[in-house]
Amino acid sequence: MITFDQAFYERIIEILDRRNCRGFSYWQQLQGRGSKTGEPHYGSHAWPSMCSAIMTVVDDAKVDALLEELHAIDVETEMLGLRAFVWNIEKTI
Question: Which domains does the chain have, with CATH numbers?
Fold first, then answer.
């Protein structure tokens, strides 16, 4: 699961394409705020930005490289916010 400022959408899609991570689901407008730092994303007058999320199932062999590339984006612009979370997927149909 990748949550991010909407400004990162194209870059994240490029990374997924480059890493051959084809399937995903995308939520365009989410509200939230980071657990430690970064600006809130509420879509309000005071906090106008919004965040988005992508859920993708990635082969174990691709996870670390994908996380490293996403982390590099976050480090460039920490206040915008980008987080990636990994869960084990037991089964798919």
Answer: 2-84 (3.30.70.120)
CB under 8 Å to 25, separation ≥6 — which residues?
Answer: 54, 55, 56
Place of tokens 């890493």: 19
44: DSSP letter: S
Residue 24 phi, psi (nearest 5): -160, 160
Which two tokens mark 44? 């309000």
Segment 14-29 shows an average pLDDT of: 95
CA dist., res. 41 & res. 22, Å (int): 27
pTM over 0.85: yes
Summarised one tens digit per residue, pLDDT across range 70-87 is 999 999 988 788 999 999
Quick check: 51 and 41 in contact, CB under 8 A?
yes
